[in-house]
Amino acid sequence: MMAQFLEIKQGYPDALLFYRMGDFYELFFDDAVAAAEALDIALTKRGKHLGKDIPMCGVPVHAAEGYLLTLIRKGFRVAVCEQMENPAEAKKRGAKSVVRRDVVRLVTPGTLTEESLLDARRHNFLAAFTQVRDEGALAWVDISTGAFRVMPCSAMRLSPELARLAPREVVLPDHILPDLDGIVTESGASPTPLGQAAFDSAGSEKRLKELYEVGSLDAFGTFTRAEVGAMGAIVEYLEITQKGKLPLLRPPVRELSHGTMQIDAATRRNLELTHAMSGGREGSLLSVVDRTVTAGGGRLLERRLSSPSRNLDEIHSRLETVSFLVEQGRMAEDLRSALRKTPDMDRALSRLGLERGGPRDLAAIRSGLGAAIELSEQLANAEALPERLMQAGEQLIGHDELLTLLDEALVAEPPLLARDGGFIAPGYHEELDEARQLRDEGRGVIAGMQAEYAAQTGVSSLKVKHNNVLGYFIETTATHADKMLNPPLSETFIHRQTTANAVRFTTVPLSEMETKIHNAGSRALEIEKRLYSTLTGTILGRAAHIADTARALSEIDLAAGFSDLARAEGWCAPEVDDSRMFEISGGRHPVVETALRKTGEPFIANDCTLSNGNDHAHIWLLTGPNMAGKSTFLRQNALIALLAQTGSFVPAKSAHIGLVSQLFSRVGASDDLARGRSTFMVEMVETAAILNQADDRALVILDEIGRGTATYDGLSIAWATLEHLHETNKSRALFATHYHEMTQLADKLTGVENATIAVKEWEGEVIFLHEVRKGAADRSYGVQVAKLAGLPASVVARANVVLEALEKGEREGSGAKAMIDDLPLFAATPPAPPPTNAEPSKVEEALQDVLPDSLTPREALNLVYELRGLLKD
């Protein structure tokens, strides 16, 4: 056995080998050591190899999926090795023959299909990248849904595209893996090398033709050699990992980079589109706008948010559909009610295609098609449907025959596994019903035979029993056995066994009935398995149509979800056109507003105008203190643009947005110690990417450029950056800064306008109004913010002294050293006096003993009048 393990393991040196032994998957040698540590399970030993103990650990087969998920998340790959024959068959070759085993599947991060291993609302992409001379291409597939896409992509564009797709695994030619390993790993994906032959365009084209059974790929579009190579490598990798059982892949769709808004990895991270800074979904834009009720709709929403469209016709079509459902609120709710009954047909189809499905996947197709018919009827009864909904409605019909078949064939709630049986409905198959009747009524038949034998022998205590050794047998006490051992009864009753307290017999009819009953159960199960295969084949024969229906359901779900969001939150329909307009009235940050609502605080809405006309600037230079809301204001305008081109209503009173080609965000401070980058270096790298790539249709938000270095260095960098955005990039931009000197640029650059976040000072305290107004801030209020943060009173007092001296020196023109020399030493500064308790006011005294919960409405009103009188006194 161990020789067999080592032989199989040689073919999968980079994977843990799950070696099937009965009801367990067992691991040996280094695999066992690694798995035991990763899974936190016991490490034992089994036998010896070269004189040393063999480490071993194991996991139960029935619980293997949970262990697989843990291993995949920790970066392991797992080769699943199954028994390919029964132990009885192996014994026929000799008593010491080893059961034949082979790897049936290689489990990797990008090839998961099990429901328990996947996030239902997220795609699980496997990607492949290759280059042919100066031409690059990126292909990606989700084998759990069949989605298959490809696009031209240079090595320079690989990082932002991986950030957009967030694949779990990226296959690369082994010779370029070292150059791109860092980019892939940084995106959160697992890099996997594959031989260059897998990416060869000629071999790849042949594999693709065989997969789709076509003579030419022209029916799918025109692809470059690199694109064909990337797609072919994915097919090759799937053949390797799935051991020849290819999933149901839809025809490949070619995407173009200019078809979607370009968003780099840093911007996605800063704007928290699909993941919050903390790493989870909670607190992201996706978590706030997701009102979808199906898994497919949730995945479509994430795709749209990650890839907002730049096609005006597509954007207008999406917005038109949402507007219709906003106006038809009752209809939208009816659609959502029907959609809630819709299971994940895409993933059920994929599991059936890979022979990893079960009766519940058949039932999922049945339920999904049933919901589709209900939705189609609702759409058919509506008037003036938008074209997008009409097209979706057409994809929902045409399944009547299949639905009738599944309704008749399946029980209401099938079991998980086909091998358990019990999923075919009674009355569907006559032979199956007969086998089940004999299987289920066998006890009654045996009871009848027992009564017959008791009457025949005159032994009322006679019993017909069963065990695994004798099967069915007749048992009586030794006292009554003599009758049955002697003629004439001995001719009917055949002696089987004598025990200390009883004698056991059988009869020819009892043996025959035992055979029938025994065979009935296995025959019924065999018939059900055969029917399962037939039903699965029928479904797979209509897989393309079912997939189109699933896609239509997701489209309807997303539009209905957006309409529900717009109605509930009071969002408006944006006007999106081909101009350079950017006018937002009463804009709000959807995530911050949701968070504030939980605390009962209102969100202060603000306007933003970045139009490039004669009367308006296309760059706002935003000044004001920390904590006042500058970063929120910057982000909310970026998110409004992104939501509009996603096809959603937006959180504003009104919005007019000229098409945004690229979205760039440089907000917040962070370092990258693993790559040797300081906070300032990260800031400069991100800023450089913006200035080198942004075009005149881009929207750029920049916050505190240059703050990570010396004051004058930082001011110089920020100044030059703003000039470059204005003169060279000509982008629409929001530029927040603490360098008040930069406000002078509004007088020199025609496209720059000053704006500030309003604050109010009251009794030495600063109150943030969170209102954006035209004009420049006169100070930063940094010391006040430090006080709010809880710095010791002595530190705040000292900071005020230093600030006053520095500002005085700047006004008088003295040098920084002279200003510092004039300051008294901190040690000589007396500590701030402890706060004194002021005498309580008359109002405070009147309220001291009041218990609000015990007041009646009349008493509360009288108290208000009483307090008012005290204030006048």
From TrEMBL:
Its biological purpose: This protein is involved in the repair of mismatches in DNA. It is possible that it carries out the mismatch recognition step. This protein has a weak ATPase activity.
Alphabetized CDD domains for the sequence: ABC_MutS1 (cd03284)
Keyword Acetylation carried by entry: no
PROSITE patterns the record matches: DNA_MISMATCH_REPAIR_2
Sequence similarity: Belongs to the DNA mismatch repair MutS family.
Stored SUPFAM superfamilies: DNA repair protein MutS, domain I, DNA repair protein MutS, domain II, DNA repair protein MutS, domain III, P-loop containing nucleoside triphosphate hydrolases
Name of the protein described by the UniProt record: DNA mismatch repair protein MutS
Keywords, sorted A to Z: ATP-binding, DNA damage, DNA repair, DNA-binding, Nucleotide-binding
UniProt key word Cytoplasm: no
Domain DNA mismatch repair proteins mutS family: from-to ranges: 698-714
Chain positions recorded as ATP binding sites: G624, P625, N626, M627, A628, G629, K630, S631
Organism: Aliiroseovarius salicola
One Pfam family of this chain: MutS_II
